[in-house]
Design goal:
The chain is an alpha+beta fold. 22% of the residues lie in helices and 22% in strands. Keywords: Signal.
Length: 415
């Protein structure tokens, strides 16, 4: 009999255990809205779901999971919890420590291809500064200031990047451990909308001792400029003169050099100065007109020049040769004939030639001095002629006076 009751009791207990319900619809998952619920308020360890999450991660709404491992003492609120939304791959973790509203931490997760599911990873330094890395979720990022520090064993590695950014497989920026950097787009300083590759809304300082372009320094070969249209600003290319240097390459252009323009507030643009690549300087000359580069001049100015002193060093002979004994001048009749024919002095350009071609100051001064020296010779010759003429007149007057005396004597005798 006792054996029968024992067997019957065992069968009945087995039936009760087999048919016991656990969770919603025997799913082993219960419904609980408040993740901060205390043990003596009904919270138990287990698996839970909710559509109205309370004390879940910030911003939680809709359906969420909760895994709750609680302390055995129901009168406290110590628990280790994991939670996550039904709709994404994010996972959150916290230890309540007796605080039902304890802040949740996001757990690092990734897809099977290694791409992070998290919007960002935040690293906080000992003084409260933070840095985050990861991929963007949504249209914007909202983040505080950040710091990042990296160490490398190879300071000069050509691909030794320690911070860079990619979009669709293209590197858009990079900072290398040896101090070099690269940006594929525009960089702005004090401007959020740079209009060039490098846009500085403020003071730009360049050059200095570390910008030494002395060609005797092995790593100062500027051949990289060739066929690029680029320029470099440096110092001391003249090997000790200590000047600031601007070195440019004309690229696909034919002349090169440096040009300066003014762009007015009404959109009018004017070329102020052009220092060409073949060593010519043009000031106030319109580059859109006939090219001044075709002329023989080293400097052209579209307007007046004011100076306290101008020195012209001539390559031609200064006309002291006019005073040499074998120098031949025009005779005055020939000179008169030339002037009557051409209306200007020999070797002096006509008004038409000056209007068309201008004058060379040094050359013109030389010619004018030549004419002055020739005029001096004419005056000396004239003075000689006048003195000779005066002697002749005095001699003639003497002869006349003598004749008058003789006539007077004859008249007396006759009378």
């Amino acid at each position: 009999m006792n054996k029968f009751y024992v067997l019957f009791a065992g069968f009945l207990l087995k039936s009760i255990v087999v048919n016991a319900q656990w969770g919603e619809g025997d799913s082993r998952t219960d419904t609980r809205n408040d993740a901060g619920l205390q043990g003596d308020a009904g919270a138990k360890s287990g698996f839970f779901q909710t559509q109205n999450p309370v004390n879940f991660p910030a911003g939680a709404q809709g359906w969420w999971h909760l895994l709750d491992v609680r302390h055995s003492n129901a009168t406290n609120n110590f628990a280790m919890q994991f939670s996550g939304s039904f709709s994404d791959q994010m996972l959150y973790f916290r230890k309540t420590g007796g605080n039902p509203s304890q802040v949740w931490s996001q757990v690092l997760t990734s897809n099977n291809d290694g791409v992070l599911n998290n919007s960002k990873i935040t690293i906080q330094s000992g003084v409260g500064q933070v840095f985050f890395t990861g991929r963007q979720i949504g249209s914007t990022y909202d983040y505080p200031t950040g710091i990042f520090h990296a160490l490398t064993d190879n300071a000069n590695g050509t691909i030794n990047y320690y911070y860079d950014g990619f979009t669709n497989g293209v590197r858009n920026f990079a900072v290398r451990a040896d101090g070099q950097g690269y940006f594929a787009g525009n960089v702005g300083v004090k401007t959020a909308t740079p209009h060039g590759d490098f846009d500085v809304n403020g003071t730009l300082v360049a050059g200095g001792n570390s910008a030494n372009l002395d060609s005797t320094i092995p790593d100062r070969n500027l051949s990289f400029l060739e066929h690029t249209g680029r320029m470099i600003i440096g110092w001391n290319k003249s090997k000790g003169a200590g000047e600031t240097d601007f070195v440019g390459n004309q690229g696909a252009g034919s002349v090169g050099g440096f040009a300066f323009y003014n762009h007015s507030n009404t959109g009018t643009e004017q070329q102020l100065m052009w220092l060409t690549g073949d060593g010519k300087l043009f000031v106030g000359i319109n580059a859109n007109g006939p090219s001044p580069n075709n002329g023989p001049y080293k400097m052209a100015v579209g307007g007046g020049i004011l100076a306290e002193a101008v020195t012209v060093k001539l390559q031609a002979n200064w006309p002291d040769y006019v005073f040499e004994k074998d120098y031949k001048t025009y005779s005055l009749p020939d000179l008169e004939k030339y002037i009557n024919t051409y209306q200007h002095l020999p070797e002096i350009p006509s008004a038409k030639e000056v209007n068309e071609n201008g004058i060379n100051i040094g050359d013109m001064n030389t010619k004018l001095l030549r004419k002055i020296e020739e005029l001096t010779l004419y005056l000396i010759e004239k003075d000689k002629i006048e003195k000779l003429h005066d002697r002749q007149i005095r001699d003639q007057q003497y002869q006349i006076d003598k004749l008058n005396e003789k006539l007077a004597e004859l008249s007396i005798r006759i009378n």
